[in-house]
Automatic annotation (TrEMBL):
It is found in: Golgi apparatus, Golgi stack membrane. GO terms for molecular function: galactoside 2-alpha-L-fucosyltransferase activity. It comes from Ensete ventricosum (Abyssinian banana). Pfam families: XG_FTase. GO terms for biological process: cell wall biogenesis; cell wall organization; xyloglucan biosynthetic process. Gene3D superfamilies: 3.40.50.11340. Coiled coil: none annotated. Its EC number is 2.4.1.-. This is Fucosyltransferase.
Length: 397
């Protein structure tokens, strides 16, 4: 490869919109650190969501790109970096060789179900090796930026780019991902109709995961207890019905997002039927209730991105633990949210985040790079356990 040739990384979307956004932002930072051009595979369901971020050009992968069927790339793909290492198609000794022959591209398999070979991607030896490949194809569903901070050779550049480590996602996502006119139209119409005139805006992002379900009443109780205990929403006076509002009463607008409208309905009824102890007026709103996640549908994704953006306008934000949807909203707004904890992991209904950064929920083990270049020990004080997932890591100042 000649010195003037370009190097590329192709992002492959995976899972829901929140997963896609955090992995795309991570891929963008990886491209910056390695002087690679970022190209994105945009299936039909992602069209008309975001503006083109780079003036005068397009980041969309050309339709005549010789590699196809990106959704078939997975853990068993022979061209994955991990599989090529395992099968001895490549070896660490080759990373400094001027004469070694490499395949045309390497696939980086980094979703939650990646294996021990795939996880070596986060080691310094791998980063040196991957520079031999002009094309990298990357699939992930996580915010893997915290592990990039543990690669020692990136230390100087990352310190210059981000003197405040808790703003990494905030700056990257606001630079890279501007909502399309279609999405922005949804956002502005809803905001001015329901939220703009409130004295304070509260966002509540609710996600009840199928693989870790929480009973409806339990989760609803968490939301009410948490918001009242932390002074985010006023308590009600159950002895008295709602009374006429004073002319100078403060108004709080609560914007909720959930696939299930039941939470919003119950909270709205609570404030509709009873007076608040503070005299405040509380309005509760929900833009959609899709029932099921439908990532393969463009209109579903337009609604999802609109609601993420509306959540980011909150003065105070409550999120569900381990939800990438919530991570994107808090990052866009630069907000340290109040996190609804998993009931089986904590006796407290919620806890405050100490950083707006998303959590890398399933990082490689701490010792994965012990024999592959080690880690940047200077950064371990800033890459620590997440508030909402004991096994996850995130960035702190």
């Amino acid at each position: 490869m000649g010195a003037m040739e370009c190097n590329y990384i192709v992002w492959i979307p995976h899972y829901g919109l929140g997963n896609r956004i955090v992995s795309l932002v991570s891929s963008f930072l990886y491209a910056l650190l390695n002087d690679r051009v970022l190209l994105v595979h945009v299936p039909d369901e992602l069209t008309d969501l975001f503006c083109e971020p780079f003036p005068g050009t397009s980041w969309v992968l050309p339709s005549d790109f010789p590699v196809h069927n990106f959704q078939n790339f997975d853990k068993d793909t022979p061209q994955s970096y991990g599989n090529m290492l395992r099968d001895k198609v490549i070896s660490n000794d080759m990373r400094f060789s001027a004469n070694a022959t490499f395949p045309a591209y390497a696939y980086l398999h980094l979703p939650w179900y990646y294996n021990e070979w795939d996880k070596l991607f986060f080691c310094q030896d791998a980063q040196q090796m991957l520079r031999k490949f002009p094309w990298l194809l990357l699939k992930s569903d996580h915010y893997f930026v915290p592990s990039l901070f543990l690669v020692e050779e990136y230390d100087d550049e990352l310190r210059r780019l981000f003197p405040e480590r808790t703003t990494v996602f905030h700056h990257l996502v606001r630079y890279l991902l501007h909502p399309s006119n279609t999405v922005w139209g949804h956002v502005t119409r809803y905001y001015h109709a329901y939220l703009a005139k409130a004295d304070k805006r509260v966002g509540i992002q609710i996600r009840n995961l199928k693989n870790e379900p929480v009973p409806f009443e339990t989760l609803l109780g968490q939301i009410v207890t948490c918001s009242s205990k932390e002074g985010i929403l006023p308590s009600i006076d159950p002895r008295h019905p709602a009374r006429p509002a004073e002319d100078d009463a403060k108004v709080k607008a609560v914007f909720t997002t959930s696939l299930d409208s039941g939470y919003s309905d119950r909270i709205r009824d609570m404030y509709y039927e009873h007076a608040t102890t503070t005299g405040e007026i509380v309005g509760v709103y929900q833009a959609s209730h899709e029932v099921e996640q439908r990532t393969e549908q463009q209109n579903h994704n337009i609604k999802a991105l609109s609601e993420i953006t509306l959540l980011s306008f909150s003065d105070v934000l409550i999120t569900t633990a381990c939800s990438t949807f919530g991570y994107v909203a808090q990052g866009l707004g630069g907000l340290e949210p109040l996190i609804l904890t998993k009931p089986w992991k904590s006796k407290l209904p919620c806890r405050w985040a100490k950083s707006p950064e998303p959590c890398f929920l399933i990082p490689p083990p701490a010792d994965v790079c012990r024999d592959h270049g080690g880690i940047n020990k200077k950064m371990t004080q800033h890459v620590r356990q997440c508030e909402d997932e004991n096994g996850g890591i995130k960035l702190f100042d």
